[in-house]
Amino acid sequence: MFETVLASIGLGTAKIDLRLDHPTVRAGEEVTGHFVVTGGKAEQDIEGLSVYFMMESCHATSLSNIHKKIASIGISKEEYELEPGETKEVPFSFHCPEDLPPSSINTKYFFLSNLEIKHAIDAHDRDYLQVKPAKHLENFYQAIEQLGFHQTWEGSLPLDNESFGQLLQYRPTSYFYRKFEQVGFYFENQKEQKELTGIFDITLKENDHSNYLSFLQSKKLTHSFLIDEETLKNVESTQKYLEEMIRKDLAHS
After folding, report:
1. Which Pfam families has this protein been placed in (predicted)?
2. Is 189 exposed, middle or buried (0-12, 13-18, 19+ CB in 10 A)?
């Protein structure tokens, strides 16, 4: 009886643990794993199990923190009695949306699991997931890295269609070292996207590029870009496109 009272206020109660098969996933692919539900010190009635897939980021315009629910995942509404110390396993799978910005400096993702317990405080679990770029964007990020750019900041911009724009900022360390202070890219992540369109900006001297508005307004070297599907198919062609684009812009500065 005493254990039941303690369990009702969250002491010695049942626990939930989401165990992912892999801590990383590519945007547009499947996440798999299983839940381990462990009974506490008293018998308890379980009423269901649900999960939220959450995003944390920095807003590219206001610089405020973003806490957004990407998906609500209903795992089970099965009601059952969980005996003290009993262990149950529940399979888990989730299709990661392909239009998500990848995990980065400010952008993080996690699953928030909720075990619904009758007449007691629900049990929770938080598990972070590293989201890699969607396939069509992977070569873009690798090309930037091979050009010797070091990422210094990134932010997200929620769009009306529930997708996101992303602002990325880099400093040159090799190819363009001392040629300019910073380069920024802004583009929108869309479903079934094959090409990449957006805006890039070159900062010739140190300036405050900490949000999307200053990114667009503070410099003259701001232009649109379009990388077609064929170019994005490999790192070398993407790197060549970006290098030529930047050199051309510098030549006209």
Report:
1. Spo0M
2. buried
